[in-house]
Amino acid sequence: MLGLMPGEIASDETGWLLSPHQHMPLLQQRRALMLVNRVRLFALLFAILTPLWIVVDVLALPSGLWERLATLRLLSTVAFTALVLWYPQDGRLKRAYQGMSMLFAIPTLFYIGSHMLMTQYHLEGVSAAVGTGYAFLPFVLLAAIAIFPLTMLESLAFTMPVLLAYALAWTLDWSVASWPSFGGEFWLLSLLAAVSSLASISQLAFIIALVGQTIRDPLTMAFSRRSGIEMLELQLVNAERNQLPLAIAFIDLDHFKGINDAFGHAAGDKTLKLLVQQIQQNMRRGDVLVRWGGEEFVLLMPNTDRVQGEVALERLRQNGLGLRPDGTPLTASIGLAERLADKCNARRQLVELADARMYRAKQLGRNQVVSR
């Protein structure tokens, strides 16, 4: 599949199609919102269509059977309606998983219950045809997997319960079950699950490529300012929820205008690219580098207190930020702010505080870190 999408998925992102644990927070948030939106859409469709089928049951099935099936349908409709009206959208992947689990659990339980009721009646003609329609519900559920952008592990987690429910329904009718028929249908159901999972993973690959194009600065490949603001807000929420430190550094290159004036903008662009590469080589895995504008960058350092931030930035400064076109060292003035030490949980205020300290570093002679 990766061979069919050259240039869309980077080599270090292939694991993102297998498991969600490697996804960046921004991708997790956007995908969680997308999953919940699609859960609510499908729940709305089921809430409308489920009670409408009662009319067909009344016309085709025996009175005792359709009444009990109608009860199951009305209970399912209430559950689907509640999912549409009251399920929250908070951008958390765990919440999206819960919503999908509820969406698939409701019709799966309905399928098992309806199958148990059907086995108590001997249906013929039109009644048998309508009753057979109930057996196709697992096929509908597995086909629906294709509209959700899921990793391989997530697809397995949501398709396996449907397959197991189908097998369970057949074992409940052990005495009259046609095992060759079950084997053929189960094979077809498994094949549908595989195709839907492939479509789901392909959709995720497209979203990863699309998000990667929109959240990166096209010149330096650092995160763009807009995506950086979103990630900072996400990290602030997580840090406040778990009472963790969060440091941000405002980095401004010293005398960068002189590079553009003396050597041209092409040389300035090359200098910025090399700067980002140098910083990324010294970053931790969880750190995030954002191009804030021009020669200004913001470095987000989650789970990092003021002292740890000072040490990391001094190490970065000592290792060097690269060279100017004339071969002299490239330096920067850096301001550091940390949410616990500075008693600041607001995104705008934290950035402004780091920015003010960066200007103080310039006033003190540049090429240094100011954190107080």
From TrEMBL:
GO cellular component labels: plasma membrane
UniProt keyword list: Membrane, Transmembrane, Transmembrane helix
InterPro entries documented for this protein: Diguanylate_Cyclase, GGDEF_dom, Nucleotide_cyclase, Rev_trsase/Diguanyl_cyclase
Coiled-coil boundaries: none
Transmembrane segments: 39-56, 68-87, 99-119, 125-148, 155-174, 186-211
One GO BP annotation of this record: cell adhesion involved in single-species biofilm formation
GGDEF domain span: 244-372
Catalytic reaction list: 2 GTP = 3',3'-c-di-GMP + 2 diphosphate
Superkingdom as given in the UniProt entry: Bacteria
Name of the featured protein: diguanylate cyclase
Organism this protein belongs to: Aquitalea magnusonii
